[in-house]
Write a structure and sequence with these properties.
By secondary structure, the chain is of the alpha/beta class. The protein has a single domain, classed as Alanine racemase (TIM Barrel, Alpha-Beta Barrel). Helices cover 44% and strands 18% of the residues. It has 8 helices and 8 strands; from the N terminus they run αβαβαβαβαβαβαβαβ. It has an 8-stranded parallel β-sheet. Helix 1 crosses helix 2 and helix 6 runs parallel beside helix 7. The site of pyridoxal-5'-phosphate has 12 residues, from strand 8.
Length: 225
């Protein structure tokens, strides 16, 4: 990816974000996370040089390697994948800006325990499986509020600041929209508990996600091509 291509990709996405967010409100600000999981550090650097600062990875090992290679740049790193128990310590040591994928109570308790033992904290989002898909991890719409509350009360090292969801795996926009609205409803419920981020929307559906209340989108293929 050269600089011209990167500029075009970023401009296109930013313009689409701008359109979608203004359909919600002047005051609706959306944060863009560039998902770099299929990209190399050279392309990340190119995208940084045209104005993109926050990146997301779904594997702890890749996150660590790319962070290390690019540690001269003031980048923000997000972890967006399913966290395996045996990778928890590595993720804590990497100190990501935000972990989007807290997807079970078991993981929350284990992560909290390890954070406490390292005298560390981690900002996290609760992952919602809003379409109840077997292929996805996360809390169901019914479980989410109680789980959010339990983690807030029982896991002092986890700083829970919102929710995350992957849109329904469907060609029907109405189905995808339904899943986004369901996650957004939970977001509204947990706002009084301090939630600030509703992370939803990827390359194929981020405009719809924003219109359904998302304020953090994770875009990969539209930025790196
Ligand atoms: C890969 C990935 C994305 C980005 O997907 P694109 O379709 O490439 O934009 C967003 N969120 C998660 C959790 C991902 O794994």
């Amino acid at each position: 990816m050269n600089k011209i291509q990167a500029t075009q990709n970023l401009n296109k996405v930013v313009t689409q974000i701008e359109g979608a967010r203004l359909r919600v409100s002047d005051h609706h600000i959306v944060k863009l996370i560039a998902v770099s999981k299929y990209s190399n550090t050279k392309d990340i650097e190119t995208l940084y040089n045209v104005g993109q600062r926050a990146y997301g990875e779904n594997k702890v090992q890749d996150l660590k390697e790319k962070m290390t290679t690019l540690d001269e740049l003031p980048l923000e790193w997000h972890f967006i994948g399913h966290l395996q128990k045996n990778k928890i310590n590595n993720l804590i040591d990497a100190k990501p800006t935000l972990m989007h994928s807290l997807d079970s109570l078991e993981l929350a308790y284990e992560l909290n325990k390890k954070l406490l033992s390292k005298n560390a904290t981690m900002k996290c989002l609760l992952q919602i499986n809003s379409a109840n898909e077997e292929s996805k991890t996360g809390f169901s719409e019914e479980e989410a509020y109680e789980a959010y509350n339990s983690i807030l009360n029982e896991c002092s090292a986890i700083k829970l600041i919102g929710v995350m969801s992957i849109g329904a795996h469907s060609k029907e926009r109405a189905e995808i929209k339904k899943s986004f609205l369901s996650t957004n409803k939970i977001y509204e419920q947990v706002k009084p508990l301090g939630a600030r981020y509703c992370s939803m929307g990827m390359s194929s559906d981020f405009e719809l996600a924003i219109e359904c209340g998302s304020n953090m989108i994770r875009v990969g293929s539209s930025l790196f091509k």
